Amino acid sequence: VDIPIVIYVTEFGRGSSRPLFCLLKYGNPTIGNLLIVLTIVSSQHLNSPMYFFLSYLSFVDICYSSVTAPKVIADFLTEKKIISFIGCIAQLFGVHFFGCTEIFILTVMAYDRYIAICKPLHYTTIMTRRVCGQMVVASWVGGFVHSMVQTLITTQLPFCGPNEIDHYFCDVHPLLQLACADTYVVGIIVVANSGMIALGCFLLLVISYIVILISLRTHSSEGRRKALSTCGSHIAVVILFFGPCTFTYIRPSSHLSEDKMVAVFYTVITPMLNPLIYTLRNEEVKSAMRKLWSRKVMSDGKSIG
Question: So where does this one cross the membrane (predicted)?
């Protein structure tokens, strides 16, 4: 048989599945990101391109964490941690689709901040609603194309056993180690596809923020404080997401045990922390959330009365 029917996913490590389960169950990022989406959609004040992109980032985070988290929770509750081959490939596609889309949206958000700070007089003419929509669509299309490449080159490999991967979700590197063929060329394609996208976007982000920091010297102290507060949130998310991503995909396939823990950062930790980072450092979002909560309480009170 060239392709196995099932893939047996091993545990995270002895005694480490329990804290991961607790993290996923009690720190589910879906609620926080969904709250951000609802706040931005319902608020008339959060209508700038920055919040437009933030709503899509939060939506992608919901989809991204949903690809792996439910299966990990289900695996913790069962003795045999099994996923079908088709389910494994679907998970591989979803991880790279939403992950790459998030990379592109974070890059677009950096471009938005660059235009807002370095070219404020041209901001409204450059960052129109149509342009922002086109950027989001391009991000989704780019993520789809990237994921299709990763998925197709993986499914073309012959699999004839063993069918056990030492990871908590199906990814390219663990699957390459199961192939019954020389995967050197495929590994190079994976590095060129995933690694270079992550590294290239990360370098672009670093350059853009260097330019932003230099341009802030001519701004007033109040303008610098506001700009640094906004950019600081974005920089924190970029470091948390791009660091582990680049570490994983910029090098060839390996058997490093650290890969599982590193993967937790960009599949679980970052989507969970994004709502906290963007709300705790942003007074406009917090104010809009309070107004949304007040309207909800008032409407509930009227319905009861």
Answer: 26-43, 82-111, 131-149, 184-216, 228-250, 262-280
Return d(Cα 149, Cα 127) in angstroms, integer: 31
Query: Distance between CA atoms of 203 and 234, rounded to whole angstroms?
Result: 15
Residue with tokens 């309207």: 295
Among the listed residues 31, 36, 64, the one whose alpha carbon sits nearest the alpha carbon of residue 50: 36
Distance CA 152, CA 172 (A): 11
Q: Write out the H or E segment, with its range, that includes residue 194.
A: none
Comparing CA positions, the residue from 210, 3, 184 lying closest to residue 88 is: 3
Q: Tell whether the torsion through CA atoms of 276, 282, 287 and 289 is positive or negative.
A: negative
pLDDT category of residue 221 using cuts at 50, 70 and 90 = confident
User: Given pLDDT bands bounded at 50, 70 and 90, which one contains residue 299?
Assistant: low
Structure tokens at 245: 């991503």
Give the alpha-carbon dihedral of 87, 57, 21, 68, to 10 degrees. Answer: 10
Query: How many other CB atoms are there within 10 angstroms of residue 140's CB atom?
Result: 17
- Model pTM score: 0.84
Q: Which of 184, 179, 177, 135 is nearest to 155 (CA)?
A: 179
Q: Model confidence over 8-35: pLDDT tens digits?
A: 555 544 444 454 554 555 456 778 888 8
Nearest one of 111, 119, 55 to 238, comparing CA atoms: 111
Residues in the chain: 305
Q: Which long-range contacts (CB under 8 A, 24 or more apart) does 213-222 make?
A: 215/117, 215/118, 216/117, 219/117
